[in-house]
Amino acid sequence: MAQGTVQVTHTGTSRWRRRTGEYASLAAALEAAGDGDVLTVAPGTYRENLVVQRAVTLRGPEGSPGSVRIAPVDGVPLTVRASAVVQDLHVEGQDAAAPALLVEEGAPELVDVRITTRSAAGIEVRGDARPTVRRCTVDNPAGVGIAVVDGGGGVFEECEVMAAAQSGVAARGGARPRLERCRVHHTSGAGLSATGENSSLEAIGCEVYEIRGSGVQVTARATAHLTDCDVHRTTADGVTLDTDAVLTLADCRIHDIPENAVDLRSRSVLTLTRTTVRQFGRNGLSVWDPGTRVDADQCEIFDSTGDYPAVWVSDGATAVLDSCRVHDVQDALFVLDRGSRADVVDSDLTQVRNTAVSVSDGATTQLDDCRIRDAATGAWFRDHGSGGTLSGCTIDGTQTGVIVTKGADPTIERCTVTSPAEAGFYVSADGRGSFLNCRVTGSGGYGFHVIDGCRATLRKCRTERCARGGYEFADGGPGTSGDGPVVEDCTSDESAGLRLPEPPRETAVQTTGRSSGLLGAIPGQRSTEQDHLVTAVPEPEKPARTSSAVLGELDALVGLESVKREVRALTDMIEVGRRRQQAGLKAASVRRHLVFTGAPGTGKTTVARLYGEILASLGVLETGHLVEVSRVDLVGEHIGSTAIRTQDAFERARGGVLFIDEAYALSPEDSGRDFGREAIDTLVKLMEDHRDAVVVIVAGYTAEMERFLSVNPGVASRFSRTITFGDYGPDELLRIVEQQAEEHEYRLGHGTTEALLKYFTAIPKGPSFGNGRTARQTFEAMVERHAGRVAQLAEPSTDQLTLLYPEDLPQLP
């Protein structure tokens, strides 16, 4: 389209000026125009760099939107330095170092301007400029959509940024734009961005969506206020705050976010009022660092699509939820780390697949008059220093109402737990806690279940209709000589009331039948039943073998030459270290935990047992006994039971070796929120806290164990070395069969040795190959076939009863 003419309608009062005039270029028309004049631009393409310095009206023809193109080869196509009106123009820029439309001064009006450009910015407002921008569109796949910088401001109404290579709307350097009913979408940076001290962005009734980055980003002491806005379908976090940022969200909707819906760090402050957060892949609210704070009032957080807590508070941050609803999520509220705190008032936490409230690593939480319903665990205070208060709360329809473990010490007062499947309140592993005026009704298990002699305090509590009993104090209850719970003025609807167990006699030990429940070992008898007392008879101790004797048994094993060398080297290090200590010298630190890799049947369990005996003979371990477990022994069916099962296995191995076969099963590749991770975390902490009490050996296939260690650096750092158990060769498998035959008083007949070598050479070595197990199974099959052959003889001789021949070999699999 060729360049047209420009008609200028003069409004000046000087008699010498014409009322109208036509000019061949926009530049000439602008030069001739005065304040108040109207410049009507004929359709066409104008390759000019325009500067508007007077309060004129510059517009395209009525009824032909987009017919006037301002498209110079380079530079800024349109610069406005006055309170002018620019309307119905199409601006195109090509300069990556300059904006397409630059507003430098005044309070101009930009109306129905379309900007299609590949510039540094579609619209840039700077300095003292305060434009009003209405119904403008920006398409800039090379830079920022709208940039307001260096103290600039203005109002943007019903504008659309439909593409930007960077932020859709960016405020920096003390800028203060206001957006009303705008749409920002398909940007490669943040949808809305405010950064720098004194920078502030306000958005009302706006929509931010389809963003390849964060929907809203506020950083470096900037502030922002969003009212009645939608933020959705981003690839990164929905809202990001960092470094003293301040943001207010009122009546907003944040949804369809694959990462954190809202993430804030480094002393940022967020206030949410009547805002909904839903369909998020990670945390709904993610709050980090000392001084960072969230205040949420009348908000709703729900419908998480990932396996993460809806509200995450850590590293000393604070969150306050007042009259909020959190529901249909994996976990509702996780508070971690010393100094972190969450205050929740008059709120509902419902439809929670795992834990409604989790407090750990020294954090605290305060829940007042809250309602927790339909969760696996209502509240879990996990470890030493973790605590807080639950006051006036109701917990309904959970597996367990409240769990207190590992030295945690909360105060639970005036709380009611209704219809828990397992226990109303469960305290174990040195957990403490004060339970005041609490009530449990309709429990499928116990009302209060306190084990391990935990020093919990129960005052004026009440239980009703608890299937297994109102109160259970296992392993040292009130009234025993141990350091168990303190119980005062507690009642139950059982006819016998609350009866405290009698202290055991000095010459007797208390034995209680046990059955396993989802929360671990649960005494089979209630505390209201009479305990059965038997005289304690100590078991005779087995004479301990010397390390030389145990190493001799190790040497007698078939094959495993590299394994034997590794174990001997480790044993020598430990022995020399012990002797150096006895001589008053420093001993090198030797981590005794091991990784065994290799296929099944290569002797890993046998070597683990002998290794424990060796360490016991050297005085490193107390007993050296072996406790063998696998995933099924450690991982429970719901959150809470896994940690307890893992701790129980660790305690059984105390003084010996805990051997975890197929340990990689604790961390499957598609684990998500698999409870195996909880077993790993518990195990790592126990290994650190009791490093001299138990030796842990993890074992499994070589490739799978390498992956297991690579994805769990916390586990990998606890082990000193990896010992690889290679597959047995045909000669070694033959030797195992010969040992089996000798042990069971059989002999190999003529040709059987050669037949076995050919058999073990030809046997498939796939995943089902069992190495030593295969050799033993082969021997058992030969014995079975031998029996079928010899049973037909009337009076077989001794040779016939003992000799195994090639025909006794089974068919190759």
From TrEMBL:
Please give the coiled-coil regions recorded for this protein: none
Q: Name one Pfam family in it.
A: Beta_helix
Domain Carbohydrate-binding/sugar hydrolysis spans what residues? 41-172, 313-474
Q: Which keywords accompany this UniProt record?
A: ATP-binding, Nucleotide-binding, Repeat
AAA+ ATPase domain spans which residues?
Answer: 590-729
Q: Does the keyword ATP-binding apply?
A: yes
Classification via InterPro entries: AAA+_ATPase, AAA_lid_6, ATPase_AAA_core, Beta_helix, Carb-bd_sugar_hydrolysis-dom, CbxX/CfxQ, CbxX/CfxQ_RuBisCO_ESX, P-loop_NTPase
What is the superkingdom listed in this entry's lineage?
Bacteria
Quick one: where's region Disordered?
A: 475-523
Please give the family membership noted in the entry: Belongs to the CbxX/CfxQ family.
What PANTHER family does the record point to?
AAA-TYPE ATPASE FAMILY PROTEIN / ANKYRIN REPEAT FAMILY PROTEIN, AAA-TYPE ATPASE FAMILY PROTEIN _ ANKYRIN REPEAT FAMILY PROTEIN
Protein name per its UniProtKB record:
Right-handed parallel beta-helix repeat-containing protein
